[in-house]
Recover the amino acids of this structure.
């Protein structure tokens, strides 16, 4: 019979324990999200992150030890980014039929997201690594993490800012768009996808199918545009 | 499945090599995305090959950023100091970006006579 501390010290050294914990935490978060009737503020990622961070703290496990196991999930961010080519390709008829409004809204929405975030943060004295981590926060997570690292930001900080941006967009979109009286479902969905990536897109799909399709398109296109714009716009704020 | 995975990883690898050798500020996987779209345009059969794997990966996209999100434990002291500014920047910029994006779309659609049908 092996004592629990021995089993623990064996498991704590390998990747199995934290890989399993990551999937379990996400499964629990997702179950809570479904049980709430898919409310945007009951976000499965946020629940999983808080649960795992608490678990690391209680078990006094350093983040690099956790990441040894979780890196297998983390690695898939790259292939998932490449896979975004599929929904973009399948939306090509939408792109052709509404080409000019899409291009204008994409550039305006993407630049507004980056510039206004950098301007507000700079006004609060935020600079350096944190500012670089903030710049790509409207892009979908795998792309935002890559952009952040290329610009000298922190991938882990960007991950949290991306999640919070998505939740914000999902919560404010419907009341905001009603307030400014935008009734075109294409415009509503597309703007939400550009500003708040996958979490906003999931919300748009619940509200209206046309809005959902255009939100997915906005997310995919903004992944590319943010990668191009963020480094240029960030330079304006780094004197 | 293996062929689809091979195609995804090859696009990513080619993207990384391209980004590094040309010193581009684009992340390798974003270049890989663009390469795969070009691939779809050249070989339409590639779309059906990629569909199951791509949909599987994208269906659980949010799981993939949990490991990086847990890294917030290393930033708690910084977030405590700059949290208010960061939250205002996030909320302010998201509201502005949605409003500007949606209004730009409807304005240009009206100017060019593009209708929702």
């Amino acid at each position: 019979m092996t004592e629990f501390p021995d089993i623990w010290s064996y498991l704590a050294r390998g990747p199995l324990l934290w890989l399993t914990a990551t999937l379990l935490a996400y499964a629990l978060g997702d179950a809570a999200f479904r049980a709430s009737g898919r409310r945007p503020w009951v976000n499965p990622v946020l629940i999983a992150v808080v649960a795992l961070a608490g678990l690391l703290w209680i078990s006094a496990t350093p983040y690099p030890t956790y990441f040894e196991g979780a890196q297998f999930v983390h690695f898939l961010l790259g292939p998932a980014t490449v896979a975004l080519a599929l929904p973009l390709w399948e939306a090509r008829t939408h792109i052709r039929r509404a080409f000019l409004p899409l291009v204008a809204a994409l550039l305006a929405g993407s630049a507004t997201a980056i510039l206004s975030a950098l301007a507000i943060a700079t006004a609060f004295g935020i600079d350096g690594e944190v500012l670089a981590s903030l710049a790509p926060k409207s892009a979908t997570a795998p792309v935002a993490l890559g952009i952040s690292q290329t610009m000298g930001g922190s991938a882990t900080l960007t991950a949290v800012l991306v999640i919070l941006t998505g939740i914000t967009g999902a919560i404010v979109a419907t009341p905001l768009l009603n307030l400014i009286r935008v009734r075109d479902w294409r415009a509503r969905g597309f703007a939400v996808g550009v500003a708040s990536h996958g979490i906003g897109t999931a919300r748009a799909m619940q509200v209206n199918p046309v809005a959902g399709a255009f939100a997915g398109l906005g997310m995919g296109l903004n992944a590319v545009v943010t990668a191009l714009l963020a480094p240029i716009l960030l330079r304006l704020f780094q004197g | 499945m293996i062929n689809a995975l091979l195609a995804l990883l090859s696009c990513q690898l080619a993207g990384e090599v391209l980004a590094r050798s040309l010193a581009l500020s684009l992340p390798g996987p974003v270049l890989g995305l663009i390469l795969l779209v070009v691939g779809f345009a050249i070989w339409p059969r590639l779309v059906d090959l990629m569909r199951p794997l791509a949909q599987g990966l994208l269906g659980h996209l949010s799981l993939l950023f949990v490991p990086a999100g847990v890294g917030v434990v290393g930033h708690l002291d910084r977030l405590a100091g700059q949290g208010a500014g960061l939250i205002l920047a996030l909320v302010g910029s998201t509201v502005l970006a949605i409003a500007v994006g949606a209004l730009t779309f409807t304005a240009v659609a009206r100017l060019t006579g593009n209708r929702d049908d």
